[in-house]
Amino acid sequence: MLSVKNLSKTYKGSNKGVQNLSLELHEGDICAFIGANGAGKTTTIKSIVGIHTFDEGEVKLYDTNLKDDPEHYKSMIGYSPDTPALYNNMTGKAYIELIASLYKMEADELDERLRYLLKELKFESAVHDLVSSYSHGMKQRLVLIALLMHNPKLIILDEPFVGLDPNATDFLVNEMKSRASEGAIILYSTHVLEVAEKICNKLVILNNGEAVVNDSMENVLKKASLNEIFRDVTSNE
Ligand SMILES: Nc1ncnc2c1ncn2[C@@H]1O[C@H](COP(=O)(O)OP(=O)(O)OP(=O)(O)O)[C@@H](O)[C@H]1O
To answer: Pocket of ligand 1, candidates 7, 9, 10, 11: which has the most ligand atoms within 8 Å of its Cβ, to mutate?
Structure first.
């Protein structure tokens, strides 16, 4: 279970960030994290993955508290940032090997998973090229391969569909569903409401740093479409 209690982070010198966010996700949950530009999605995600320090609150994955044991906590998660930060003078393969070594993966386990992911994401030839030659979508695909290869318990993706072509989008949607059905917890931010409506069973809508909707997708959709609800709760923007 991922448990986020009263998470608050305000950037120094501004009153922006996220306030008092609580969230509980269980094995098999796919949660869409939506909100207008600047609502606080990336801030929250970076806090939950342990990149940003936060001012108040508690983040726990199963029994591991992020602040008490960040190393173990981070070993259980797979994260894709909104803008992949990769070393330009590395090949994709060298990057994958670096990440695999950080997660202490065995060579045979890595080979099998990697072959599958490279094939599905059509990256078998590109993996030998330098990152500097990749498009945005190729960098996204490389990050996805690296984060999925170690079977993380918690998958956190910040706007994962941006830059992905339709084949890679289909792969990711199916992979999210199958990982969730095998017990992973998935949280992802997005502006693509149609996909979120179809694949997510949980929903958080942020507005000005506060969760204005935090419910099951089923309950939310009883009231109106996601588009209408989004427009309604962000109408004060
Ligand atoms: N490093 C920073 N210093 C100060 N303010 C920041 C910083 N990063 C983000 N902010 C502000 O915090 C607020 C939340 O930003 P955040 O990037 O979390 O939004 P978001 O919901 O991810 O937006 P988008 O959909 O555009 O990616 C915004 O008002 C933004 O300007």
So the answer is: 11
| SS3 label, residue 127 | helix
What's the CA gap between 11 and 168, in Å, rounded? 35
Joined tokens for residue 72 = 């173990």
Chain Cα centroid distance, residue 63? 20
| Cα–ligand 1 centroid distance for 86 (angstroms) | 21
In this predicted structure, what is the pLDDT of residue 85?
Answer: 83
Residue 177, SS3?
helix
Separation CA 32–CA 156 (nearest Å): 10
Cα(41)–Cα(44) distance, rounded to whole angstroms? Answer: 5
pLDDT tens-digit series, residues 154-188? 999 999 999 899 999 999 999 999 999 999 999 99
Q: Which CATH superfamily includes the segment(s) 2-83+153-233?
A: P-loop containing nucleotide triphosphate hydrolases (3.40.50.300)
Q: For 130-136, what is the mean pLDDT? A: 95
Q: How many residues does the chain have?
A: 237
Q: Which residues lie with the beta carbon below 6 Å from any ligand 1 atom? A: 11, 14, 16-17, 35, 37-43
Which residue ranges make up each domain of the chain? Answer: 2-83+153-233
